[in-house]
């Protein structure tokens, strides 16, 4: 049960951070992508803050020999930029731009009872499962 809490609490903190920064509002995301209209740079500031926090946290965590809850740290197995990566990234970006959601804010909106996120989350789950089936990807 304690491992479940260690997974749940960071997700909850992430969701609260998204909500407080306004990043759960699809209009904010769409305005960030609208350079010629109502451009809103605040998403770039939130992403920059997240990158700095991640970079510092990663360096601190990887100083440990193993994760606190056991196991080993995952290592990247593929460092190549190939067609599958580029196409997947383009599809992710197109979905993000069209819907105004990326996975974290979509789940946060769904958890908050915003039904407009339901179609996005359903399509996201179908796409993730489809990629697993087509490409034989691990579920990890």
Q: Can you offer a commentary on this structure?
A:
With 140 residues, this protein is an all-alpha fold. It has one domain (2-135). 67% of the residues lie in helices and 0% in strands. The chain contains six helices and no strands. The longest helix has 20 residues, at 2-21. The two termini are 19 Å apart. The mean pLDDT is 85.
Which descriptors apply to this entry?
globular, single chain, mainly alpha, 140 residues, 67% helix
Lay out the secondary structure.
Elements: H1 2-21, H2 26-33, H3 42-61, H4 83-99, H5 103-111, H6 116-135
Helix pairs in contact: 1-5, 2-4, 5-6
Radius of gyration: 17 Å
Terminal Cα span: 19 Å
Number of distinct helices: 6
Largest sheet: none
Percent helix, as a range, is 55-70%
Short description:
The protein has 140 residues and is mainly α. Helix content is 67%, strand content 0%.
């Amino acid at each position: 049960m304690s491992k479940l809490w260690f997974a749940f609490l960071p997700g909850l903190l992430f969701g609260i951070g998204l909500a407080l920064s306004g990043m759960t509002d699809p209009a904010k995301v769409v305005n960030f992508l609208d350079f010629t209209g109502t451009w809103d740079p605040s998403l770039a500031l939130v992403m920059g803050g997240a990158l700095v926090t991640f970079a510092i946290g990663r360096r601190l965590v990887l100083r440990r020999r193993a994760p606190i809850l056991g196991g080993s740290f995952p290592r990247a197995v593929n460092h190549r930029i190939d067609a599958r990566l580029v196409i997947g990234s383009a599809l992710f970006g197109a979905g993000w731009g069209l819907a105004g959601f990326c996975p974290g804010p979509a789940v946060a909106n769904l958890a908050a009872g915003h039904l407009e996120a339901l179609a996005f989350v359903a399509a996201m789950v179908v796409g993730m499962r489809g990629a697993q089936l087509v490409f034989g990807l691990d579920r990890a």
